[in-house]
């Protein structure tokens, strides 16, 4: 198994099947898996409080022991720690990463023609930080291994240079931290934290586009690190040229290093991924069914993994034989998951809000800041109709009961505008592509 959190999912399923839902939600569901050490036969789990820890030790240790044994075929000593204890432990031992990122490594990343270049670039940067490609930007659709490669770079650098300060942040976290720092008047600490790092790893950097103050702050952080010859690695769901509302100064910084894209895996790579994941979980999936899965799921490694995990859960928990029927069921569960119209509507609102740098609430019309919101709202209405085909009256409801004639009018206007305004057309197409890719 590549990641402990995957196995944790199966352990949870096991526990869920043995106790009441209330007890499960109260005690088991709130545990966060941290690490699993086969050599020491030890596992560490974070629990919300001392009280939680006590209860688990008294009432649920038998169940958890049983679950670990069922899933791993061997017993583990379970250590519960509270978030405070974890922080102290981390401070004591600088070799322990704060995140359980060690599970994403180069050794468990499967290389195929769709990712050779990005993988090679990541390996090169990890071997010699800040000497060859700076910044390195890896981009590609959801579920293709961007975060995996980013963590692998961090892990590899940490392994070879334990003294280096590696800072990992996601674009949206960066925004939140900055907002908090401004609120608490701690922007100086915020700046120091990032500017003192030797390696800055930024996941999902596309989120900062369109946020003026964040872009400004990020621009200065970027320059400070770059001038100091520190490695910067950026992950994005699209190349800089397609980040429409990105500040031009940042765009040129992002483009100044190496850009590497990740493409959806080809059939051989998909088969290899299914085989590897199935092997590590010990789920017997025949060659024929492996090929079947690889033909059905083409564009997303996360979904491929999802199928294997679900098959494993059914095999392990229900003792089900893995047949064509079971596989087909699991595939359709995975593919239909989250493709409901409501989900798509939410995605559209989120994505349009992000693209235009407005808030989702404003876009839905919960506050009246009409003028700045007019254009993004028209775009959102147009895309919702395009993607879901839901009725005009229904679309009106999403925007605080706009009359259906307004929706009809907006659709017509948008179609006209897109014929003359190529930038608008591009923006709309971009948003649609992004939502489709991520669904
Ligand atoms: P992204 O950040 O691009 O959305 P992730 O890095 O989170 O995607 O990858 C999704 C899942 O697929 C992760 O569990 C990751 O380990 C796995 N994965 C993606 N690509 C590969 C690969 N080439 N080899 C092995 N596992 C992969
Ligand atoms: Mg990711």
Jot down its keywords.
alpha/beta, single chain, Helicase, Ruva Protein, domain 3, 5-stranded parallel sheet, 20 helices, globular, Rossmann fold, 439 residues, 4 domains, binds magnesium ion
In angstroms, what is the radius of gyration? 24 Å
What is the CATH top level name of the largest domain?
Alpha Beta
Count of helical regions: 20
Sheet of most strands = 5 strands, parallel
Spatial strand order of the main sheet: 5-6-7-4-8
The CATH architecture of the largest domain is 3-Layer(aba) Sandwich
| Strand runs, count | 8
Q: What name is given to the CATH topology of the largest domain?
A: Rossmann fold
**What's the pLDDT, averaged over the residues?**
88
- What's the CATH superfamily of the largest domain, by name? P-loop containing nucleotide triphosphate hydrolases
Residue share in helix? 55-70%
Question: What form results from the Cα inertia axes?
Answer: globular
Structural class estimated from helices and strands:
alpha/beta
